Amino acid sequence: EALDAKALRTALKAFGLPARSEEERREISLLCSEAVILGSVDFFTFCFEVVPTCREVMRRLRKELLLKYFEMYDVMQTSSISLGACRLLFRSCFTLELGSTGMGPMLEEFDARLNKIPPEVLGEQGVVPFDVLEKIMGLFKEKVVRTVLERVAEIEEQESISSDFGKGLDVLLLYDAYQRYNSDDQGMPRRHFGFCLAELGLRPSQAWEIAEMDQGSRIRFAEFLLAIRVARKEMLFIGHKLLKERFDRLDKAGLGLLPKGGLSELFGLMALVPRCKEDQVAIWRLVKECGADRKQLNFVACEELALRAREMLKVVQYERVRRMVAEESAMTVDEHNAFRDMFHSFDGQSNGLLHADEVRSLLDSIDFKQHLDSVDVFMARYGFQLPLDHVNFETGAAQAATTTAIDFEGFLNMMLEIMGRSRKVKLEQIEQQSREPVFRRNSFGRETLDELSPLTTARADGRASFTG
């Protein structure tokens, strides 16, 4: 059986060589058109000519991105990094595709491949040169793409959803976020719906209508995907006026196009600021894939790109916190989830940030009053200054950045420091506490029958009290 140009592009995608950017799409289309000039492509031509050529094209086009990830860990600028740094680079490259659940098995295969590198290549210091790592990463990129396609097909069959239903959504990434709150495979508890959307950088007020379509206590994945679409539209609506004002300010020529170099300034005005090199590279990757580094964007494209950047930064931050918890502390997954629920409960704007007053209220609610006077010190140590005209998602208006804010990563570090001296004893007590139901008002202004975090227990006056 032979393939025409269109079928050839489909076959390359299924093999693990899909186009991610406009430049890649253009190059692959040209490759496929040239391959069928003399007729349809048979199996052997596909294997020995089309695939090797496509791999070389992908290697050339993606080298710049891989170099940016590589430079994050090549601090001595020797064009080689350690085996441990290779693992960290692998995580950074494929977290957005695989999520936390799919990363484990793939990382084990990557480790096995690294162990096969000959000692003479690693040298006395045991480091991996860039060109060697580039070849390995190229092969694993194909494997990751095939794994994602297979996993998405499994999810669609398991959750009884069509491929069209999830079209335009990062199904595997969203399923990973959904499953964090679906520990018993019975569906996501509705009381956790807002928390999950907040982790994705989405404000879920209108999406509650989707989550409350029936009286059941669980949300199925298809229902969750529908709510994601509603929440994204709502986020575009909320930020439309303010983003348009910022866009028009930068579009000094009045052409309806953002000038080159204006995207980073626009992101800064919208508080989409990278907090580390990993965030910086992730944003650069997103910009590269949409072609914003080579062309001017209109307002609609900027809106969609800003929303994608917000969600992406949230995902990257969550994975960074999860790695830190797993590798640098003795905290269990349940304890991490308890801190996460507590954080979201006091995040009044559902934007993944706490201000000083909210941190004080949180510490007061768990009877850590002795640390209230140190909040400003903690905020300076673990927080960051918001850019001017930070968006207030409650009102849709701009507000001056006069205080620092803290994200979940900084909050977790703060709580670990506060609990430092007697942390072991307190964490043991946390695990022993029972979960008692209590009515409370959540951060979205709704009275819900919730369960207390493992960090808290119910007081007679209805407030939460830390029992550690």
Report on this structure.
With 468 residues, the protein is mostly helical. It has helices at 5-15, 22-35, 43-73, 83-114, 119-122, 130-158, 171-179, 193-199, 208-211, 221-250, 262-269, 277-290, 299-328, 333-345, 356-365, 375-382, 408-418, 423-432; strands spanning 80-82, 127-129, 188-189, 218-219, 257-258, 297-298, 354-355, 384-385, 390-391, 398-399, 404-406, 437-441, 447-451, 456-458, 464-466. A three-stranded antiparallel sheet has the order 7-11-8. A two-stranded antiparallel sheet has the order 1-2. Helix 1 (5-15) packs across helix 2, helix 3 (43-73) packs across helix 6 and helix 4 crosses helix 7 (171-179). The longest helix is centred in the N-terminal third of the chain and has 32 residues, at 83-114. The termini are far apart. 32% of the residues are buried.
In the sheet with the most strands, the strands line up as: 7-11-8
Number of helices: 18
- The N- to C-terminal Cα distance equals 69 Å
Backbone shape: globular
Largest sheet: 3 strands, antiparallel
Helix content: 55-70%
Coarse structural class: mainly alpha
Query: What is the tally of beta strands?
Result: 15
Catalogue the unreliable spans. Answer: 421-468
